[in-house]
């Protein structure tokens, strides 16, 4: 399923994987080279609540979102490792209006800078 999502390209406008905490790392890796220039909304709420495996690939794909991104929900993704958070460092989202990072740094602040 994530291979199809990765190949959606400019047609993908919304990605909602809310509460999909059992996606294995190998599946997340399918998103590694995704390019979603018209993505407007991302919801990965609780996807990385139990494990951070695959978070780097997921956040790399999210970082590829173009200037259309308006909403980013990573609530309760407390297992995202510091190195994975760095994937968002070069993202350019001038239209971003809403970000939910509640509980992301509840147990560990690494990667918050």
Topology record:
Blueprint: H1 2-6, E1 14-16, H2 25-28, E2 41-43, H3 55-63, E3 71-73, H4 82-85, E4 98-100
Describe the structure.
The protein is an alpha/beta fold and 113 residues long. It is 19% helix and 11% strand. It has helices at 2-6, 25-28, 55-63, 82-85; strands at 14-16, 41-43, 71-73, 98-100. α3 (55-63) links the parallel β2 and β3. The chain has a four-stranded parallel β-sheet, with no helix packed on it.
Count of individual helical segments:
4
What is the terminal separation in angstroms?
33 Å
How large a portion of the residues is in β-strands, by DSSP E? 5-15%
Global geometry = globular
Portion of residues within helices: 10-25%
Low-confidence stretches: none
Strand order of the largest sheet: 1-2-3-4
Give a short synopsis of this structure.
The protein has 113 residues and is an alpha/beta fold.
Keywords:
113 residues; alpha/beta; four-stranded parallel sheet; 4 helices; 4 strands; 19% helix; globular
């Amino acid at each position: 399923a994530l291979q199809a999502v990765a190949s959606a390209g400019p047609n993908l406008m919304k990605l909602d994987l809310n509460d999909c905490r059992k996606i294995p790392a190998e599946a997340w890796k399918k998103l590694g080279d995704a390019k979603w220039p018209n993505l407007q909304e991302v919801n990965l709420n609780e996807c990385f609540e139990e494990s951070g495996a695959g978070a780097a690939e997921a956040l790399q794909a999210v970082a590829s979102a173009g200037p259309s991104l308006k909403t980013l929900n990573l609530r309760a993704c407390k297992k995202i490792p510091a190195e994975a958070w760095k994937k968002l460092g070069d993202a350019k989202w001038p239209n971003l209006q809403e970000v939910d990072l509640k509980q992301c740094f509840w147990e560990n602040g690494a990667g918050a800078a």
